[in-house]
Amino acid sequence: MKEKVRIGVIGLGGMGQGHIIRIKDIPEAELTAVSDIDPELTRKSSDENRVPGFAGYERLLASTLIDAVLIATPHYFHPEIGIAAMEAGIHCLSEKPIAVSVDAADKFVQAARKNKRVFAVMYQYRTLPEVRLARKIIESGRLGQIRRTCMIEPNYRTQAYYDSAGWRATWKGEGGGVLINQAPHGIDLFLLLGGLPSRVTAREHTRLHRIEVEDEAAALLEYPNRAWGYYYTSTNEVPVGVFMEISGDKGKLVYQNGLLKLYSLKSPIPEFTFSSREMWASPEVIEEELELPQCETGHKEIIRNFCRSILFGEKLIAPGEEGIWTVEFFNALILSGKKNKSVDIPVNRGEYKNLLESLKKISREKKVKKIKRVTDPGHL
Fold first, then answer.
1. How do residues 269-278 score in pLDDT, each as one tens digit?
2. pLDDT interval class at 380 (50, 70, 90)
3. Fold of domain 5-124+301-318
């Protein structure tokens, strides 16, 4: 049995360069090749890391130098490259999101199943101790039936960020704005803990930046059990942060900027509502003491887990097939906002594909003075 997974990194922008550093620090992983469409960047990375470089990912996949790829290209290329890798017998770890549209995400997931390859997505926030504990609490049923959800996640980006590359913040190059770029990590946690809604009624705007895609979005959510939810995100607000509530008839989870709180009820709400004889009574609330698990976190842990899944069958922290949840969600919000109507989940694949194609047709060519490839220091 192999002791290391030979990994080729495809896409050598800020994220790809950051992942190369992490791969070198993982005992189960070995960087054996790099690839980017920019020949000069490929040569530079090849020389610095002393591994072969390929200007096209197809040559990398045919090289026999790798067991797996880590895809860190712009979003539209994730399924194309991933499917080609899996058909070549190569495992795949994709940066988020796994696709721009749900029909492309479907094909990505189907390719993994058909070729029996390990498929993971880079949702590193799942590794956080408070998120692991929150997931355990939800799965144990301690909240009872979920009655309401809320997720408010303001982000911030300068115009300089959007001007750093021609593909950023365009329908043709990126396929969306804040919902597809900054928000997927938060959306993933929201859906992981609160579940996938069955209907959304959304609004989206380009409120501040000089871009053609949305920099703000909000939605009213409906769930199969008739629970309600609310979601908001933008790149226009500081301080940034995350506020999430998952409220059930037995208790409530509150997650805010890394702090997790659990409130349990001595009597479930439906039971107390009809058993109490007092006009102004309410169930007694207890704030539970929580002990966070000791665990590894971050991108490094997702890569390590991916490698150990290939080598030893370890359960994936962020399976690629669960990456489709986020795509369903942001596709539903964009479709609802653009069409000014409520949209059901699963999203109508054909309707969203037609919308995206129409938006790409009017997408303007974007020229930048200087391309900047810098890893986000806040997402290490």
1. 999 999 999 9
2. very low
3. Rossmann fold (3.40.50)
What number does CATH give the domain 126-288+326-361? 3.30.360.10
Report the distance separating Cα 259 and Cα 254, nearest Å.
8
What is the rounded CA–CA span in Å between residue 322 and residue 68? Answer: 19
For residue 113, pLDDT beyond 50 = yes
Q: What is the pLDDT of residues 40-63, one digit of tens each?
A: 999 999 999 999 999 999 999 999
Opening angle at CA 292, ends 287 and 296, nearest 5? 160
C-alpha closest to that of 60 among 70, 50, 47: 70
Q: What is the token pair recorded at 105? A: 């995400």
Q: CA 202 to CA 67: how far, in whole Å?
A: 42
Residue 369 scores a pLDDT above 90: no
Neighbouring CB atoms inside 10 A of 111's CB total 20
pTM score over 0.70? yes
Q: What is the radius of gyration, based on Cα positions, of the chain?
A: 22
Tell me how far apart the alpha carbons of residues 344 and 203 are, in angstroms, rounded to a whole number. Answer: 15
Hey, which residues does 120 pair with through a beta bridge?
93, 319
CB 63 within 8 A of CB 54: yes
213 close to 131: Cβ distance less than 8 angstroms: no
CA angle, corner 26, sides to 105 and 47, nearest 5?
Answer: 85
Q: Where are the domains of the chain?
A: 5-124+301-318, 126-288+326-361
Strand partners, 218: 203, 232
Amino acid code (one letter) for 352: Y
Query: Which sign does the torsion angle of CA 18, 24, 30, 35 carry?
Result: positive
Instruction: Tell me the pLDDT band of 370, cut-offs 50, 70 and 90.
Output: low
DSSP assignment of 57-68 equals HHHHHTSS--SE
